Amino acid sequence: TDSVKALSVKVANPTQSIASWEAADAALQRVLTAVDYLCLHFARKTVALVFHGLSLSLYRAYLLGNAHVDFKDWQQLSFAAVALADPEQHQLLQDFAPVAGYAPRG
User: Fold this and answer.
1) Model's pTM, two decimal places?
2) Backbone phi, psi, residue 93, to 5°
3) Which of 4, 12, 50 shows the shortest CA–CA distance to 31?
4) Where are the extended beta strands (E) located within the chain?
5) Which of these, 29, 33, 99, 104, is most buried using a 10 Å CB contact count?
6) What is the pLDDT of residues 39-59, one digit of tens each?
7) Can you count the helices (H) and strands (E) in the chain?
8) Residue 30 has what pLDDT?
9) CA 32 to centroid of chain Cα atoms
């Protein structure tokens, strides 16, 4: 579909706004600001973060040290997936796994 094609272009060009979407770099910065806020206000607490799939993919790529989201990784991220991360150490401890059966995107 057109939205999947636009997404593939978007993740490959994180500094550009594609199809009037927020640039991936700006979206990631928004996610990181929110995560930092939660770490500051809920130190040493377990917090569940719920994101849209692209935001999760951006945060995952950041935690893995990748410059951008691999489109195939986004396609393989199941709907209703969970992961375990240490946001203060910027580490992905357990990668995303589906919680309600595998439902691929795109």
Assistant:
1) 0.77
2) -90, -35
3) 50
4) 81-86, 91-98
5) 29
6) 999 988 888 888 887 888 899
7) 4, 2
8) 94
9) 10
Element (H, E) at 42: none
Q: How far apart are the first and last CA of the chain?
A: 8
Tell me the one-letter amino acid at 73.
D
Lowest mean pLDDT among 8-12, 72-76, 95-99: 8-12
94: nearest Cα among 81, 80, 86, 83: 83
Token readout for 2 is 């057109």
DSSP string, 7-73: HHHHHH-TTS--TTPPPHHHHHHHHHHHHHHHHHHTTTS-------HHHHHHHHHHHTT-SS--HHH
User: How many whole angstroms separate alpha carbon 13 and alpha carbon 27?
Assistant: 13
pLDDT (mean) for 97-102: 84
Cα–Cα distance for residue pair 62/85, rounded to 1 Å:
11
Residue 12: in which H helix or E strand, if any? helix 2-12
